[in-house]
Amino acid sequence: MSGSSAPAFHHDPVLGPRAVELLDPRDAHLYIDGTVGGAGHARLIMQRCRQCRLLAVDRDPEALAAARSALAPWASRVRFLQARFDAAAGDLEVRDAGIGGALLDLGVSSHQIDEDRRGFTFRPGAPLDMRMSSSGRTAADLLNTSSEDELGSVFRDYGEERRWRALAREVVRRRAETPFTTSDHLVAAMTRVAGGTVHHQDKARIFQSLRIALNGELEALARALPALRDALHAGGVLVVIAYHSLEDRLVKHAFRDWSRACVCPPELPVCACRGRPLGAALTRKPERPDADEIAANPRARSALLRAWRKAA
Ligand SMILES: C[S@@+](CC[C@H](N)C(=O)[O-])C[C@H]1O[C@@H](n2cnc3c(N)ncnc32)[C@H](O)[C@@H]1O
Structural domain of residue 194, as residue ranges? Predict the structure, then answer.
């Protein structure tokens, strides 16, 4: 699987039909796919709506190249932007015209995980990279230079690791002898701390924690949500598919807060704010893929979809 630079489309997009049904693309509005990846969702958007225009955003140049070829049939209605999705609301056309809706399908794509050289995987011998774009610190840099406290916070907060202290200490001890360069080094540290075999899910959790920290994923999401909300036309929809409980919590709280009639602090005796909701959630609880979808694409198993519509 590794070594190929050809775009790989292994699966249908996660919760694709439902996400696009909620987004409800229509007329000649502009839509943002902030995580276009292999363009699975974007293709569904373009197939469903004959006039819509799409701003296809990804911070990963390889993903954008894959999206460009997948969206070739709709090239006249698609514009590509290599950027973080939190910058998409600052795009000139978005600022001028606003958007009919936006979709964020967070995390990494199958293509990124399947390419060992990108270092998102814990398969043996894979480099510790995990950068979504080609610049910045790698996961190896993070492991080799962060303080024990910083590493502990990453494992605890993003990895929900019970033995976060011991794992951070073990990384610091080991790197003094040999700097971390491949997945094997981190798996060895985890194995030592676990006192035996480390399960697949535990490796996935710890590797994911480094990825989230390294790419500032929660910070980007926290900035993007209000920016995209403000760019929506009246009646426009924001759809987010999250794969981590902390991501989903950010989305849940944002959608709940924006749906409140009053956002004054509780100590104010009288409402002094706008006094009407900015919009309403379209999903009361997060929606999940069904068993068939998970069987066909195991990476969909942790997906949590929420949608919110701006008041008309
Ligand atoms: C789960 S994949 C998206 C798959 C896509 N929906 C599809 O159907 O093929 C997530 C994509 O988002 C990109 N990404 C993650 N965080 C990003 C960010 N902050 N800004 C822009 N792109 C981001 C990744 O590079 C990756 O290509």
Answer: 133-214
